[in-house]
Amino acid sequence: MKGTDMAKVAFLGLGVMGFPMAGHLVKKGGHDVTVYNRTAAKAKSWADQFGGRTAATPAEAAKDQDFVMACVGNDHDLRAVTTGDDGAFAAMKSGAIFVDHTTASAEVARELDAAATKAGFAFIDAPVSGGQAGAENGVLTVMCGGSDGAYAKAEPVIASYARMCKLLGPAGSGQLTKMVNQICIAGLVQGLSEGIHFAKKAGLDVNAVIDTISKGAAQSWQMENRHKTMNDGKYDFGFAVEWMRKDLSICLAESRRNGASLPVTALVDAFYAEVEKIGGRRWDTSSLLARLER
Fold it and tell me: What residues are annotated to the active site?
């Protein structure tokens, strides 16, 4: 999307994900970007680096924009920047599109979609996977829920920081797909932790073992990218345990609604609770191994 395709975009939330994502909208997308962050100093620092504008409230950021992107902490934060006091929804123009990159509940996605439709603009729930590195390198996977028409307009803008972007169904479908993503990761990380733990107890060379089995059916992103740091007992590489627990609580709550059975996910969430108790709230998700090695 270059030149004449430049869009007016607001970005709400400049955390470890939002900060680089908003930067890519300027650098790669060539868009006109206004940012809002709860801590104003962070917004100023972003503007100093990327040259966009800052706004004092979500409403001010959203006014007259074609697209408003958000990436905040949870359902509560999302409601605050959308329908709360000085929230973006009250200021959005007719025909605009709100794209939410927060990992939140499918429930809040449907609620905000209904509010947006009533107000005359579109809403897309678009949680992301790929972590801080994915955001910084502009190669996130984006899972979307919403209407075909709104998605078709938003996709070229989202492309500024995405490697993969797909519409998976109506509002809430993006969040449900992110839940599937986290359910799969939870089981994989626990399996990898047990494998490394077993290899150590068996007196094997862990790196040699993984180098061999990663060429076969056991291969996974976690194995390729985390086995060395796990073996070294280093857990400061990416997505924090406390955030994973937030995501798994969303998965487990949704499973109670839809009747899905998630025994392994529930067990791994309990294991992460133990990791938190031994001081690992901010460790990355591969720290399940630390629990086995106490």
Answer: 178
